[in-house]
Amino acid sequence: MPHGHEGPPEWKAPPLACDAHFHVFGAAERYPYAGDLRYKPPAAPLADFLALARTLGIERFVFVQPSAYGRDNTCMLDAMREVRVAARRGIVDVDENIPDAELERLNALGVRGVRINVSPVKPPEAGFASRLIPRIERLDARCAEIGWQLDFLTPGWLTSELMGTLKKLKVNFTLAHLGMFLARDGVKQPGFQQLLDFLRHGTGRCWVKLTGAYRMSVAPGFADAAPMAQALIEAAPDRLIWGSDYPHLSFADKVGSVELFNLLGKWAADEATRRTILVENPQRLYGFS
Hints:
Oligomer: single chain
Shape: globular
Number of helices: 11
Strand order of the largest sheet: 1-2-3-4-5-6-7-8
Mean pLDDT: 94
Strand content: 5-15%
């Protein structure tokens, strides 16, 4: 549902609000896709996203490398260059043994983290988490040296299995889409309870993205995701960030960007909490000046 077909948002973002999770897609002939596509990318040029951002009142941007481009970050980096340096950050997908010089080049462009991206619909697989740990540990060490963070997109079962590793990380890290715990299993599910406990009593390095409710909810209006979002807001309002997850990829015809923005207004009813989530938290986490 292109945002132009939706009404205006029910509320306006505070000044310097940040969209901390969105993607851009360029022309396929200029930016070829990686081999194993999880979805057919829609046309999503930067101009369309910036039009949405103006509608919502968003002024800061964290570009996130989509899986469709694998580890070729060219499309995202090209788009980043079109946005004021002070207003942009990026999360790339790179090999854990990337040369130092390349990390420095990316850092100069405003990149501040590396994505660890596993298909949200991947079914549980014995031994998968332990195979992922060497990459996580190597990137943790590399990111600690340059002041970057890690950005996890992992299905809920994997988020849960990796919890012991996450608790030992030296860098800040984000969990996309509320940790990807299925909303139908509710706030009481063990993995989500584990996450809430870690947010309350853990290292202070874990941040959760209030993004992609439609990826873990099947209820009308994503009503079953609300108790989970509210539990996170109650547990650690100072470690939550919001993102549109634009252009919603395989869900694009089922969900609207304004509708998702309105959800945050329902989850966080008071202005101070919204300002914390949209302005103060991303400013701290991504180093916006």
